[in-house]
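Table S2 (text version). Query chain:
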Amino acid sequence: MKPAAFEYHRARSVSGAVGLLTELGDEAKIVAGGQSLVAMMNFRLARPEHLVDITHIDGLAGIRREGDTLRIGALTTHRAVEKADLGDFAVLSRAMRWVGHLPIRTRGTVGGSIAHADATAEWCLLAVLLEARILVEGPSGRREISAEEFFLGPFTTALEPDELIVELVFPRPAPRAALTEYADRKGDFALVAAAVDLDTDRIVLGGVGPVPAVVRGESYTGTTVRARAAAAADSLELRDEPGISAHYRRGLVRTLVERAYEEAARG
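Corresponding structure-token output:
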């Protein structure tokens, strides 16, 4: 299928993109890698009247370390993160193997994934797990939004219509963190994803609700990994859905949390 008609705009700067979004209103959408939005447009699930292309804006791609803080530009591709030597943030590069297929990782961007806000998306889970801050810019300037406050519901965020994501800020290293997931076929959307950080005892789950679900691991201090995984699964309110029962999804949560703990322990 082909998308509905739209008008294309190319932004040359962040301020220029913000100006276009302000001028064009709610019917404008940002496009970068296009790996989510263009597919939705082709199926007529999204019908923006205007596309604002930000791929030619200088300074929005790149990875840089500032002390214990890691900053990743919104236009940085999944593949760039996958290939980067991130030291004690290596969980980010290791997790990229779960992102679709190589062409998607090569074109798709970090900021695009965060803005799309799929509750099973790897970047959404990682941002919540590591308590990232999302730097956005709008007509009133720049502001930071914590990851847990950014995701509001299915494909819904705290981003205003005239704002765009500029950067993800990870405030602390995570040398003992891991993310794993399960899909029926490699590259498909995950049925369930689980991420853990042993240093903060946080568990974040995808595919179990409208936003990444945080489970406080400290509630189970002193128990075995299996018991923590079971407790995390049992704490969820799940329901049967077409093609997948709540019982099956709960079993996936238990298994994946255990695997994530084991991988995180190996460092």
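Notes on Table S2: The chain has a mean pLDDT of 93. The first helix runs from residue 14 to 24.
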